[in-house]
Amino acid sequence: MSNATLAPPTERTYRDFQRPLWQRVLLTREMAVIGALVLVIAYASLTVRNFGAPITYTYLFLDVAAILLIALPMTLIIITGEIDLSVASVVGLSSVLTGTLHQAGLPFALAALIAIVAGAVAGSINGFLVTVVGLPSLAVTIGTLALFRGLAVGLLGTTAITDFPETWRDLATSKIPGTPIPSVVILIAVLAVVFGWLLHFTPFGRGIFAIGQSKEAAHFSGVRVERTKLILFVLSGSVAALAGIYYTLRYGSARGDNATGLELSVVAAVLLGGVSIFGGRGALHGPIAGALLIGAMASALRLASVTSDVINVITGTLLILSVVMPSLLAWAQSRRARRRGKRRGETSAHAGANPGTAASG
What is the pLDDT confidence band of residue 11, given thresholds at 50, 70 and 90? Predict the structure, then answer.
C-alpha cells in the first residue's frame, strides 16, 4: 500500500467548518491529548504514592524542559513534511562547547552564546543539505546526528566538566516564588508564544502549512519553500543548543553523551500531540501537551519502581501508535466512504430499474 493511500488527508474543506465552533475547538486530537494528560495526572495522584507532592511536579517540569524547548521548532519542521533527528547531538555538542569554552577562561554567558551560534550553524548545515543539495531530511539528520555527536565526544573524550558558576546552576533549577514550578517554564512559555504566533498568526506560518500540504503548490503560490525550511532548521539548531545549555546546568555536567536518545522523546511528543508525520497538519499546543503527557507517565512509572528500559519501551510504543493510528483511521474512513458510495450507487441503479416502484414510494 502506497504512502498516498496511508497518509491522512490534510486539506481543509467546507465540511470542516460545518460543525459548531465548540466542536471544532474541543473535538480535536490536541484536546484529546490534553484530556489524556489530565486523566493520567488525576489517576497517578490517586494511585501512585507521592505523585501529587509539589516536589514531583517540580522535577516533572525540570525533566521535560529540554523536550518542550526542542519540540517547539520540531513541530514546525514536521508540519512542512521534514524532520530533524540531529537535535539530541546538538544538545551534546552545545553542552561540550559551553563547558570547554568556560573552562578555557571565557565568561559563562559568552561561552553559552557561542554554543547557541554553533547550534545555529549546525542547523544551517542541515538546512543547506536539505534545501540546496536536495537530500531527504531523514537521511541528512541521521548523518549529522552521528557527526555532531562524534564532534562532541571528540572534543571532550570520556571526561566531564563540572566546574560551572553556582549562580547559573541555581538559576536553571530555581522555582517561581511561591510555586513548585521551575523558572525555566517562563522561558518555555515565552518561546511557545513566539512560535505559536509565528505558526498560527503570520503569513510565514501559513506558508509552513502550505509546504506540508503540497510543496509544488506552495511554490507556485509564492511561498519561498527552500528559505522557509532553511530558517526552520536554523531555529531548530539554535533552540537545541539552548536546551543543551539548560541540560548542562540542570545536571551540572558537560559531557559528549549528554541527551543521547532525546530525539525519540521529542518526536514522540510532537506526533502524539496531533502533528501529522506526513506534514500539513498540527497545532503547537498539542506537542506541548504530548511532552507533558510523556513526562507525567515516566514520572509516575519511576515512582512505581518501573525501570528506565520499560519506560523507553512505552515511549517507543506511543511513538509507533501516534504514527500508525491517524493512517489507520484515514484508511477506515475511506473504506466506510467507499461502502456508502457503493450502497448509494446500488440504490440509484435499483430505483432506475424500477421507476414505478420509486414513484409510488
Answer: low
How far, in Å, are 4, 5, 7, 331, 336 from residue 1 at the CA level?
A: 8, 7, 11, 11, 18
Q: Give the separation between CA 78 and CA 284, rounded to whole angstroms.
A: 11
Domain chopping of the chain, boundaries? 15-346
Summarize pLDDT for 100-134 with one digit per residue, the tens: 999 999 999 999 999 999 999 999 999 999 999 99
* DSSP 3-state of 80: coil
How far apart, in whole angstroms, are the C-alpha atoms of residue 88 and residue 98?
15
Cell numbers for 228, please give them: 522557509
Q: Are 91 and 106 in contact (CB under 8 A)?
A: no
What would be the CATH architecture of the domain defined by 15-346? Orthogonal Bundle (1.10)
pLDDT digits (tens, 9 = 90+) for 180-212: 999 999 999 999 999 999 999 999 999 999 999
Coil, strand or helix at 124: helix
Across-strand partners of 182? Answer: 175
Q: Are 30 and 289 in contact (CB under 8 A)?
A: yes
Residue of 58, 290, 289, 78 lying closest to 179 (CA atoms): 58
Contact 56, 303 (CB under 8 A): yes
- Model pTM above 0.90: no
